[in-house]
Amino acid sequence: MRKSIAIICSGGPAPGINTVISTLTKTFLKDGYDVIGVHHGYKGLLSDNPEVKIFDFHHADRIFSRGGSTLIMSRFKPKDSDFKADFFKKHNVKLLVTIGGDDTASTANRLTKYLQNQDLSVGHIHVPKTIDNDLPLPDRNPTFGFHTAKDEGVRIGNTVYEDARTSENWFVMSTMGRSAGHLASACHFQMMIIPEMFDKTTITFEKIINMIISSIVKCKIEGIEYGVALVSEGVFHFMEEEEIINSGINFTYDDHGHPELGNVSKSHIFNYLLQVKLKEIGLSVKSRPVELGYELRCCNPIAFDLTLCALLGIGVKKLFDQGISGCIVSANSKGDITPLFLKDFEDNEGKIPPRLVDINSEMAQLFINNLFYIKEKDYEEVKKYLPNPEAYDFKKILNWN
User: Fold this and answer.
1) Across the chain, which distance is largest between two alpha carbons, in Å?
2) End-to-end CA distance of the chain
3) Active-site residue set
4) Same domain membership, residue 211 and residue 102
5) pTM
C-alpha cells in the first residue's frame, strides 16, 4: 500500500492556508506519497466516514494563490475518548499535518501518542495559523496570513477614512484580533484603542467612550470635523463580565449565563454608547459604526504570505525527512527552517500566553503620541465643548500620568 500524509485545518480561516496545502501536496507527491485532505478538521478525521479530498498536482496548482481553504474547517476539539486509529490504518498514514492554533497542535500530540499505543507510527508536524499575529514566535516573526489581513484592512480603512474626510463624519471602527494598532497607524486614524493601553487601569466602556470623545473634541479645537476611532475587539477579552452585562446592550446569553459576544457587532456597541454620551453632554457629532473582521480572513494572500506559506510547506517535508515529529514548523527572518515545540511557548500552567503589543516600545509610543487627544494644555479651549476636560484627558483616563 502506498504511503500517505493527511492534512486537516482547524479554527478560523487565514490567508495562505491553500498555499500551505498546495506546497505540501506538490512536495510530497514528488516522493511518491498520496496526499489526503480531510474536511471538518478533527471532527471529520475521527468520524466513521471521513469526507476526504485526494489531492493531485493540478488541484494543488489551482489553489496555490487562492484565499480561503479548500478543506472545510472545524473548531471541534476531541477528547481522548474520541480518538480512533481506523483512518490512519486504512490509508497507511505516515504523517499528520495540522494547520491551526495551539489547541490544534496540542490535540495532535495527544492523538499521535494514542496511535503509538496502537502500534502505529504516525509523525506530526504543525503549521501555526492566526491572523492575530499573537503566537510568540522567536525573532517576533509573523504568523502566516497576518500581513495579508493587515493589507486588506488598510485598504478598507483608507476608504473609510476618505469617506469621513469627504462627508465630515466620524466613524467608529472595530477590528478583530490584534491588527488594530497596525491598522490605525497605517491609516493615520485619529484614535486607536487596544487592550494593551490599559496596563495601569481596568477597561470600562466609559473609559473607551471618553477616549473617543477626547479625540473628537481635540480635532474640533484643531479645526478638524471628521475622523476615525478604531477600537480593537480585544478590549472585550480583558473586560470584566459584569461591565459587559451592565452596559445597557441587549445581549443574548449562552446556557452558562455568559453574554454571547459573537452575536453582536462590536462597532455598533461602541457607536451606540458614544451617541448616548454625546447627547448626554450636548455635543452634536454624527458617527457611524464599521465592523472589520470576516472580510480579512479569506483574502488572496499577498506576496509576503505566498512566500512564507510556501516555505513552511517545504519546511514540513524537510523536518519530516529528518525524522522530527511533534513539532511546529517555523521559518526565521533569514528563511531558515527550524522545529519549535509547544513546551517552548507554554507558561507554568501549560498555557501559551499570546504575544501582546509592547505598549512601552518606542514604536508604540511614537504612534500613540501621534494620535489626537486632549492634553492638559488644551483644557481652556476644551471648556467650550466640555465642562470637565480632565475627565477626557487621554493619559489621565489611562492613569499614565
Assistant:
1) 82
2) 70
3) 132
4) no
5) 0.91
